[in-house]
Design goal:
There is one protein chain. The chain is mostly beta strands. It has one helix and five strands; from the N terminus they run H-E-E-E-E-E. It has one helix at residues 18-22; strands at 31-36, 44-50, 69-70, 73-75, 87-89. Strands 1-2-3 form a three-stranded mixed beta sheet, with no helix packed on it. A hairpin with a 7-residue loop joins strand 1 and strand 2 (44-50).
Amino acid sequence: MRRHPDRFQGFAAPAGHADPALRLQGLRPLHIHAIVSADGCLPLTTQIYFDGDPLVTSTIEGPVPAGAVKAATRHDDHHARGLDRPYRTLTSDFVLRPAAGPAASPAP
């Protein structure tokens, strides 16, 4: 399959800045690492992959779990935002597990 680099630009920064940092050509699909934490909860370290990237089915480690592949929305209002080309956004919800111990235990 042929990869389409212009489909995945501009997730974390204007197009052209984030793309090289996210891409390890030929080895891994585009992805973002997320580390999420909150008081009283266990920290979560995860990766978010992007739909349409043909490499999500054939990574070094094997296929990416379907729940880790998210849809991005293309926006064409880039000039109004001071960008030189369309950009994409992605929304993802994270659920943290309570930490074991007195802070997470219900009162007697």
